[in-house]
TrEMBL record:
Pfam families noted in UniProt: SpoU_methylase
tRNA/rRNA methyltransferase SpoU type domain span: 5-152
Source species of the chain: Sphingopyxis witflariensis
Species classification: Bacteria, Pseudomonadati, Pseudomonadota, Alphaproteobacteria, Sphingomonadales
Record protein name field: rRNA methyltransferase
Keyword Transport on entry: no
Length: 239
């Protein structure tokens, strides 16, 4: 299975190229192609923005035209907000990623310049258009954001590292919770919290409900005992 190429057409800022490279490598993509970068290539601003994705920048290839950049590609996807007068199948990022996984040959995700996006002639080279479902009142994605959306969707079919599954501590047994509740009650009684007296039962019920629905662990309960003890000690010191 060949991972898709990322092709940036006439990118303007080296910093944005670097950020796009960083987004690519986060999700396992390493092949970057640049079409007529405005400030030439290599660009000294790209490296710092890539934050360690140096392999992507080092292997980046430069082409004069989009047609030259996709000569070995069999599936070309143009990312654009609108069709720009070209009739092509329109896919979401998720659908495009699934299509890449299901197809043989080389695929390319094509992105336009930061300011204006892909031109009509660029979109005409592609086989499909990718449009991100987005807030119609604010449809502004920067270049790296657009790249990371496509890279992430593609990565769902890959065996990338997942966040570690950190087990939660088991809840404390009810006996420990009951001891904490009684600790609260003793100190609250001493502080005169339960007033008026005829509201004591309902207030205690609310306190118990609050403390028993949290799922606190043994360490959580121990910490709360320490907090209650310290607050009571400070109050007694003041008196």
């Amino acid at each position: 299975m060949n991972p898709p190429l990322i092709i940036l057409v006439r990118p303007q800022l080296g910093e944005n190229i670097g950020k796009a490279a960083r987004a690519m490598l986060n999700f396992g993509l390493t092949e970057l192609r640049l079409v007529a970068p405005r400030d030439g290539w290599p660009n000294p601003d790209a490296g710092p923005a890539a934050s360690g994705a140096d392999i992507v920048l080092a292997n980046a290839q430069v082409f004069d035209s989009l047609a030259d950049a996709v000569t070995d590609c069999t599936h070309i996807y143009a990312t654009t907000v609108r069709k720009r007068g070209v009739s092509k199948p329109v896919l979401t990022p998720e659908a495009a990623a699934k299509a890449v996984h299901a197809s043989a040959g080389r695929s390319a995700f094509v992105f336009g310049p930061e300011r204006s996006g892909l031109e009509t002639d660029d979109v005409a080279v592609a086989h499909n258009i990718i449009t991100v479902p987005i807030n119609p009142e604010f449809g502004s994605l920067n270049l790296a954001q657009a790249v990371i959306l496509l890279a992430y969707e593609w990565s769902k079919g890959q065996a990338l590292a997942s966040p570690p599954d950190v087990p939660l501590a088991p809840p404390a047994p009810h006996e420990e919770m009951e001891e904490l509740i009684q600790h609260f009650v003793r100190d609250l009684d001493e502080a005169g919290y339960f007033f008026p007296a005829d509201r004591r039962a309902s207030t205690l019920r609310t306190l118990r409900t609050t403390l028993t629905k949290t799922g606190w662990s043994h360490n959580d309960v121990r910490m709360m005992h320490g907090i209650v003890t310290m607050l009571g000690r400070k109050r007694r010191d003041r008196t």
